[in-house]
Amino acid sequence: MTGRPLEVAARPTARPGYWLQTLRTRVFELAVLLWSLLFGLAIVAVLRFWRPPRVVRRVLWLWSSGFVAAARWIVGVRYVLEGRAELPDRPVIFVCNHQSYWESIAFTAFFPDLNVITKAGAMDIPVFGWGLRHAPMIRVDRERRGANLRRIVREARGSLAEGRSILIFPEGTRVEPGATRRYQRGLALLYGVCKAEIVPVAHNAGLCWTKGFETKRAGLVTMRFLPPIAPGGDPEAVAREIEELINREKEALLRRGSRCG
């Protein structure tokens, strides 16, 4: 359910420097394509004969790190991670708002052993999706909701026991900056069953990283890691608290300004 969006400044297509930024975006896309072809050949060669998950995750981390670096140096999308130094030194459940594919890829660069709860279709994406499949990540099959949730919880518990943190985007899809979407029920279930700390994460990547092939905007993305929420609370109440907290924080980031342009 989408709430009333905040007022967001329009993204003019004729602002000063727009065509230069469009050129930078196209150069970035070409660079990522070449980077992906290189890794695609390596991944196909490796995964055909040898696919230990830790090696796959390292390859995925290297590809993702290249993506984030190219976004910074070619497009001009820089980032700051607020609160990362205070993160627990044990596996947690990251709960993050979802505005673009930048944060999805960036998370796997920031946390190499992360286990992302992701839709099944993402695993069919060449190179990056292959890495997701064999890392392995937790697949979401939306057509099999009951069995799907049971498997997700089982795999999430196993991942935490192995020392791998979990990342979930409880909105279930990308949500434009300034808009909200009701969180899906899987968050409460994970919190109640996994008995792990939850770290809420809010960011404003969607202001710089526009959808599809639109021109990306140079600027600073802020990703804010909030204090952990301890296990043991009422799952439904905690899920509502997290939803309100992340929505409040992303509104604050939006009002403060993205410095993207």
Please describe what this structure looks like.
It is a single chain. The chain has 261 residues and is an alpha/beta fold. Helices cover 46% and strands 13% of the residues. The protein is built from seven helices and seven strands, in the order ααββαβαβαβαββα. A seven-stranded mixed beta sheet has the order 1-7-6-2-5-3-4, sandwiched between helices. Helix 5 (145-161) packs parallel to helix 6 (186-194). The chain is globular.
Task: Name the assembly state.
Answer: single chain
Distance linking N and C termini: 29 Å
Global Rg:
18 Å
Fraction of residues in helices?
40-55%
Q: Given the C-alpha coordinates, what overall shape results?
A: globular
Strand line-up of the largest beta sheet? 1-7-6-2-5-3-4
- Name the beta content range: 5-15%
The stretches of 5 or more residues where confidence is low (pLDDT under 50) are: 1-14
Number of helices: 7
Number of strands: 7
Helix-strand blueprint:
Blueprint: H1 18-49, H2 53-75, E1 77-82, E2 93-96, H3 101-110, E3 115-119, H4 128-134, E4 138-140, H5 145-161, E5 166-168, H6 186-194, E6 198-203, E7 219-225, H7 235-256
Parallel strand pairs: 1-7, 2-5, 2-6, 3-4, 3-5
Antiparallel strand pairs: 6-7
Helix pairs in contact: 1-2, 2-3, 2-4, 5-6, 6-7
